[in-house]
Specification:
With 936 residues, the protein is α/β, with parallel strands linked by helices. The chain is 41% helix and 16% strand. Keywords: ATP-binding, Helicase, Hydrolase, Nucleotide-binding.
Amino acid sequence: MAFDIGSMVHTRGRDWVVLPDSTPEFLLLKPLGGSDAEVTGVFAGEGGEEVRSAAFAPPSPTAFGTASSAKLLLQAARLAVRSGAGPFRSLGRLGVEPRPYQLVPLLMALRQSPVRLLIADDVGVGKTVEAGLIARELLDRGEISRLAVLCPPHLADQWVEELRTKFGLDAVAVLPGTARRLERDCNPGQSVFARYRFVVVSLDLVKTDRWRQDFLLNAPEFVIVDEAHASAEGEGLGAKRHQRYRLLEDLARDKERHLLLVTATPHSGKEDAFRSLLKLLNPDFARLPLDLSGAENARARETLARHLVQRGRKDIHDYLHADTPFPRRHDAELKYTLHSEYAALFEDVLAYARESVQVPGETHNRTRIRWWAALGLLRALASSPQAAAATLRERALNVDEEDLGVIEGLGRDQVLDADADEREVLDVVPGAQVDAPDSEATRRLQRLAERAEALAGEKDRKLTLLTAQVKELVKQGFAPIVFCRFIATAEAVAAHLREALNGVDVIAVTGRLTPQERVDAVSTLSEAEKRILVATDCLSEGINLQQAFSAVIHYDLPWNPTRLDQREGRVDRYGQVAPEVRVLTLYGEDNRIDTLILEVLVRKHRLIRATLGTSVPAPDEAESLLDILLARVLNTQTRETIQPSLFAEVEAFDVKWRDAAEGEKKSRSRFAQNSIRPEEVAGELQAVRAALGDTGVAKEFVLDALQSSGVIVTPRLDGTYQANPAQVDVRPEFRDFLAQARIFRFDAQAERHVTALARNHPLVEQLASTVLGQALDDPQAAMAKRVGVIRTSGVTTLTTLLLLRHRFHLTGRKGNRTWQTLAEELDTVAYRGRLEGQDWLSLDEVQALLGLTPEGNLDPVQKEDRLRRALGELDSLGESLLGRARQRAAALLEAHERVRGAARGTGATYSVEPPGPPDLLGVYVFIPMPRAGGQA
């Protein structure tokens, strides 16, 4: 027997609702009053389980309760709704409560068909949530069925986790290390990308010849490209970017494919690269003038603005008066001087390095090997005695001396700091030995290594400075992350701090650990009361650490200023639990390498960020400039300080960087998001909160439910609440809540060991589903009651309130495709006097009715009598309630068309129909207070 979507059936001893994706033989069922976690598949074909039609049971007039128990049912029913009927279908299902500003990209997306959007909000604002919200919304609307995220491999695990915890999407990571295993789970001839609905894919994997065509043939209809700037095409950006861009171009050629580009740096002064991203959204954008300023280009700017959202923290901090807290930030540079023996070693190593790169008669390739070995040695020496000793004892590049490209690639990987999206982060020491093991040069390096090892400890003034700073930070309540360049340095620093600081947990996380081991190690450390994390740049991307850490110390200066943002962005972002974050940068005042990097790159990068409000990557010439300046260091025989400002190359570099920053500034002002007005967001947000409830409703419900179940909850001065999990007389269904949320709060402030309970938190959903399920399945014992009689002076005549739950069929059509989804909506209506007159209350009057305070009571017999009369009247209300359902369906359709705006007619179209009258969840009779000397 076939059952319609949304119809009720009975099987396995309880009532269920039939969900979309059901077939006549296989039913997807959700328990009546249950949660999404309880959705079950039932085989109802020949030989399967018995499934029969069911009807919604009317309330029992004997299972009445107080006004508070009626209010509890209303709250639980609102919070249990997951398939909301409003214009935003997804908001009831999320594991995160979006900030109002994060709805702007969603509204922009819904007004496009297909969605082609560049989300370019600043680092730490929440671009992942914005992109995931759009994907979840289109999935819940039925407009898409599959999703792919293309990203750098080090971000794949983070995307998988975000999709699972915040959007309820179980994705698999398709990476070089997982792709073969995933293929083995496929049917013969089946693609990995067809086998799994939701995939997070390494872009560098699928751009290769082995995977490219497979992905293009089986790519889903919705694709998110993270770190999209790394795929932009432009002059001098390299073959790897060209391959990535060709792949995205081919994906974008499908005119029905939804494409979201996500990046914090879409422009960065490279106009041709920026244009290449815009062309992916709309090929016509290639013909836009380079200069879009002026009144004559107003229409072009407006057109482009519909596809681009780009905001900084200042733009969204108080958006719609919803405070979005970002931490205050305090930066400081701290200098040290080398111990005399360390300075002497530095000079001797410099002397060796100068000699090693100037060996007469060497081939160019051999000279380049020596060059990279010398730079690696100087960098390791600036890092720590341990890194220096390890480098002095290691062999340098072991490559084919005939292949200059390989030499240069390995040299850059081991010595410089490549962008994480370009090459894998390497944190091993580079190695300095170039000559034969028994040569005098190698023996010289061995002697230098012994001297370096002798400097560990008190003679390492850099470590002494760090130790003092870390002690002070921990004393002030900060939890710092110390970033080092090399594994040898990180392990030595961690060992020293572990010994120097009593009662503080210290661990080192480096490239020796697998990505999962890194996550596990950080998670374990996060539980410590006092903690210090020492890490290499293997942890500067891919793991957000704002919940557990509040300070960043640059122990080693990065040679690529982008690493500064990556490191600091782990803690300086939305969701940081501390009101202030500290950023400390250590450098050697008499270390010519440190002062060079500080002046040429670090300080200029920070000046641009402070002026512009966002970072602009250094020009591509940065590596060439470092080559020139470091060559000057190696060619200078005296200890004179290099003054970079005197070099023409540095001046030209500075001009190009300033021009890039100015271009970014103009781009941000020119393309500031103005296609969605704040009042539009406010209106839709108000409608969503009215239908589904917000954090305020969640707070009231949770506290009322716990109190009704006998749980003792203690409010604390800091705005949190504490529940005692040891209470033995608590109902079993509340024990999970108490075990996971001993201390909780109801605002956006994050805090360690405190559970923030928003409307969409799983514990709130579980509690709401439990309370609602009890009311439907066991009305006599339930704490929330479906019926009640309330005596109050707030009414002057008998007034009956009905709590209704509508179910709607939303049918979508696009081209030749038709699909159907199920939507639910809670509704309250009320009428005065007897039903025959049908004196219905307005919406405002109904809201006022819900806030009335009981002022008297009736005996049980009177209550039952009143309820029997009210329930008896409702037998004739079928047509009126069906009419109400049709009114709500029309309002729902209007809301969907409103948010689609310009996309109507070109995108998906909807029709909305109720399958029948709404379910009657509750009936509450309000009786006026008796007049003096008479009866009400």
